[in-house]
Amino acid sequence: MRTTADVVVIGAGVIGSSIALELTRAGRDVVVVDKAGGIGHGSTSASSAIIRFNYSTWAGVAAAWESWHCWTHWREHLGHEDPTGLARFQRTGILALTSADEQSTGTTAHFDRAGIAWELWDDAEIARRLPHLDAGSFGPPKPVDAEAFFDDAAGSVSGLFTPDAGFVSDPQLAAHNLGAAAQAQGARYLLHRLVTGIGQLPQGGWQLTLNNTDTLSAPAVVNAAGPWSGKVNELAGIGADFRVTTRPLRQEVHHVPAPTGYSDAGGLGISIADLDLGTYLRAASGDGLLVGGTEPACDPLEWVDDPDLANVHPTVSRYTAQVTRASRRLPGLQVPHRPRGVAGVYDASSDWTPIYDLTSAPGFYVAMGTSGNQFKNAPVVGQLMTALIEGVESGQDHDADPVLFVAPRTGQPIDLGAFSRLRDPSGDAPTSVMG
Q1: What is the dihedral of CA 11, 292, 72, 171, to 10 degrees?
Q2: N or C, where is the chain less crowded by C-beta within 10 Å?
Q3: Count of C-beta atoms within a 10 Å radius of residue 285
Q4: Has this prediction a pTM greater than 0.85?
């Protein structure tokens, strides 16, 4: 079978489906290819889907705030009623905890510029608002088997609270919503199709081989393959000039019963990003909590060579580490003996910032390094990638003169050079998944 299109998007996750939607809206004939059997069945399905604004860069904050407006007007953003149902944004607020002397004024300056509401809570305010939390400072994060792990608190934490933050109820459904909207606009999805070859055509453009038999050709390709994006680049001979690298990183998120008092007045309870202990938590269905990690320096990262071979089951060691840390912050939290949760593979970049960029090969674009902190930005990623592609195809030298994306809902300018493959990953670059 031979298929042609204007643009091929590799990856049917939340990022790839958002890109497909916006490119079809721009009048492109788009084909989305994925080896999975459904939309959002890859790393998207393992996302905690937290919607927050805490980034250390203006580009990160501005993209997250623009995306929040899409999530809170989801039906309007999609422009299509998915018969499967719509994902829902749950507004809980998020409290980001650090030791009292570590709160960053840089982040709040970005909040003020964007118009994001925020409050700084000291330990007394935390105790008043969230009496079920221990406001002691136990950091920096330590291995749970270290003697010092259970030392008494040394001081207290403070918290940066953003009341408009929260989470999306079902990340896989959100990806399906985007895919359904893209298909309603004319995009075609080819599922159960593994990309086995990528080559440049003599007359320009690209030809992809699928399942070693079928071919698919287009002038432009967007690599949005998540943890498989590095392998896709290798097939295309792309990446030698990248200053930022990506690798597949295995992660776990655990499900535990919420302690008494976590949910206030029948609500879901405030989500917590606890950098002092190296964990995060948010409400889950059935009076539960999702507990994950923020990749503290004391925990070795679990890099994998082949995402398809990663263990898909939560492990006792990771479960014990993350939930035991959470129990220091929530003294009423019980730690069940048997792990329950999900394991997935991130597409992690060396500086925890995604790469949304062109490449050295004409017509080949990447939206990679997105896992861990970019689910929240998915609605805007489709828009900024479309702006990038149209700018480059109009003759703009994006490497020398980066495309400026103006967010349509908030009017905020975002220099897309912040997501360049050629950026310097040292210096002030983010050092954790919190961005």
Answers
A1: 30
A2: N
A3: 9
A4: yes
